[in-house]
From TrEMBL:
The keyword Cell wall biogenesis/degradation does not apply. It comes from Ancylobacter defluvii. This is N-acetyltransferase GCN5. Pfam families: Acetyltransf_1. The keyword Acyltransferase applies. One of its GO terms (molecular function) is acyltransferase activity, transferring groups other than amino-acyl groups.
Length: 169
């Protein structure tokens, strides 16, 4: 009998094709109908395997969650970009392959991302989500995130509200 192993580890440049594939499928599932189609396609196309490989070689902090030797999801994290917020770390992206969603993998990747940020000396964590992305909002609320800020972003002439969630160190 085999054992299915779960592991969270730092991404390597060789992981770029898998990360790009997850980015593509997760963004299509999460944002189709929210972000205008042409803009969504442009955003996905820009983040192909070459983009991810370059980012990883340049030191971007990306974690991957593997399940039975397959990358199930990734998180991109680092210093909080919104300096006015009282949290030093930020999870820029956390995405899973659609078939791994709703099974606890996201919680595991989120928890390990927080540990990675804390280990790097960042006190507290922020995550942004589009206000119309109900599954993401429910996920971050279930993890205990507090709504700490609002902003907006424009995609192809369409302005969408986004919410920041925060967790103290």
């Amino acid at each position: 009998m085999g054992t299915l192993l779960f592991e969270t580890r730092r991404a390597r440049p060789a992981d770029a094709p898998d990360i790009a594939e997850i980015h593509d499928s997760a963004w299509r599932a999460a944002y189709r109908g929210l972000i205008p189609g042409v803009e969504l396609e442009k955003m996905i196309e820009r983040r192909g395997p070459g983009w991810w490989e370059t980012a990883l070689r340049r030191g971007s902090r990306v974690l991957v969650l593997t399940h039975a030797d397959r990358i199930a999801g990734y998180a991109n994290l680092g210093r909080n970009r919104a300096r006015g917020l009282p949290y030093e770390g930020e999870i820029y992206e956390l995405y899973l392959r659609p078939e791994y969603q709703g099974l606890g993998f996201g919680r595991r990747l989120f928890t390990d991302s927080r540990k990675e940020l804390a280990g790097a000396g960042f006190d507290g964590v922020t995550v942004w989500a589009l206000a119309a992305n109900e599954p993401a909002l429910a996920f971050y609320r279930a993890l205990g995130g507090a709504n700490i800020a609002r902003s907006s972003e424009t995609f192809g002439g369409r302005t969408l509200e986004k919410l920041a969630f925060g967790w103290a160190g």
